[in-house]
Design goal:
Elements: H1 19-28, H2 33-48, H3 51-61, E1 65-69, E2 75-80, H4 83-94, H5 100-103, H6 110-121, H7 129-145, H8 149-158, E3 169-172, E4 188-192, E5 195-206, E6 212-219, E7 230-235, E8 246-251, E9 262-274, H9 281-317, E10 319-320, E11 323-324, H10 329-360, H11 366-397, H12 410-417, H13 426-439, H14 443-455, H15 463-483, H16 489-493, H17 495-517, H18 524-536, H19 546-555
Helix pairs in contact: 2-6, 3-4, 6-9, 6-10, 7-8, 7-9, 9-10, 9-11, 10-11, 10-17, 10-18, 11-12, 11-13, 11-14, 11-17, 13-17, 14-15, 14-17, 15-17, 15-18, 17-18
Bound molecules: decanoyl-CoA (MFK).
Amino acid sequence: MSAFHQSPPMLANQYRDDALLRSYLRCTAPAGVFAEIEPELDALGERAAGEWLVLAAQAEAEPPQLVSYDAWGNRIDRIETSEAWRAFERIAARDGFVARGYERAHGAFSRVDQFARLYLFAPSSATYSCPLAMSDGAARCLELLASDERQRAALRHLTSRDPAQFWTAGQWMTERTGGSDVSGTSTVATRDGPRFRLFGTKWFTSATTSQMALTLARPEGADPGSRGLSLFYLELRDDVGLPRAMRVLRLKEKLGTRALPTAEIELDGTPAWMVGGEGHGVRKIATVLTITRAYNALAAVAGMRRAMALVLDYARRRIVLGRPLVEHPLHVETLAAMQVELAGCFLLVFRVIELLGLTELGQASERDALVLRLLTPVAKLYTGKRAVATASEAIEAFGGAGYIEDTGLPRLLRDAQVLSIWEGTTNVLSLDVWRAIDAEPQTIDALCDEVHRQLDSAAGDLAGPAARVRDAARRLGDASQRFAGHESADREAVARPFAFAIARVTAGALLIAHAHRCRSTSIGPRIADAARRWVSRELVPPLDTGDEHRAASRRLGLDTD
Ligand code: MFK
């Protein structure tokens, strides 16, 4: 009988093992800050490969349960979560995963510092990054719009480092009509003295064990459409832990993110307080979306990095046809392509975080603000898709083992799949790109400026790739001019390839810039190679696809002629 056994992949310290993360932080941190934060990141990298992984496995093994009634028949609607899930809440508080964004100890760089920590935490957290995303989004929204002392107190809870004081927040936008068409929100807000009472059903509410939520509702008599919606703050449970005039109808059975409670909720007179005055609820909650979309993009690249770490380790261990996988050229090519994709996505996401930090501190130029508005949906939609593709490729790189549940590997794919759905699907966010450009026609010029600035220092064997990126940026500008300002079927049909092209051009420029920044270090040649590979592929496809769109409709039998 054969004594052959396969050796499982092992995770090393996830900070020390990540040359790209280290090189990026070394290049971008203000003087003195890198030396200060590196030991802390190193410690987090250790926990990501040990303590947190164990908790994540426990949280996945004990998914949340809904207890609708107590033993005496009283309706209690309690969602029970695992001890491990609750431990993540304490960890998040103590490590200041949200708080750091508001303490701003390192000025505008604080957001980068915070997200670097979350980058290590997210893939070992059983999606605890989701409640943190919404809490951070709610904190920013309340920081800008809090209307009373109750809301200011909530902000203090969201940004507390004391586990006994720390709160998480939900962001409830989705109703039965769907998550994309928010203007159809049917929850009604009835005035009740200084506050309101909400009546309606929220179809998806994630992290439903949170202490508070921000949600949209239409005050009685308000206009139809999204402008008539207002933003509301509510607290989910009373002092004895019972829901405040709301019922948890059921927990959702999801493809992935199984440790995360996601529920359907009926609001039946839930007390709520208006945030930031009446109306324009969608515009107000967009502040939350900017943050949660950044977290989504971060979770996507962090998931790609985790997949990469696992496949690289496995490729060194796994012997096939007498040689480890790392000695099989085709396998190496496959992994190299994944690594290039990860590097581009990583730099794209962290550029968004840099701009977020600058904007929040009032240090962003007008151009930076436009670029942030544009790149937030772009980074979210692009990395969401790439995370799914990378997870799928990673599973394949393990062969049959990747398809077997108790290896833990299928979770890579299940958890990645949600990233292109929640917080706006790929297509909804592609259309958001046109919304951003329509709102401010200078947006693409601002992006082209950003790309040119990133390429300023490109020289030597990066000069050719830089010229390609400049040319691609010009074509983005042409496409924007052709379509901007007027909605049309043709414009909608190209929204996704256009958004992808923005991601590819921007990431190409960022890769070249990073290769230049770290040219004298050991990772420099690797980044330069990644930049060349990234840029050698098509950056901007032909976008004038009106005829193709009509042909596609005909092929699908959807033409109305
Ligand atoms: C690990 C990471 C985890 C992340 C957390 C996951 C938690 C999961 C919880 C959820 O899934 S919550 C649900 C998430 N839902 C969405 O993301 C909604 C997706 N749909 C959209 O984004 C639609 O584009 C949108 C609902 C915004 C369309 O709404 P409208 O009302 O039809 O859009 P309209 O009329 O164009 O915009 C209304 C206002 O909002 C406008 O401002 P004005 O009133 O000043 O004209 C817009 O400019 C503004 N706006 C819309 N999108 C914006 C924005 N402003 C800034 N940024 C944006 N992205």
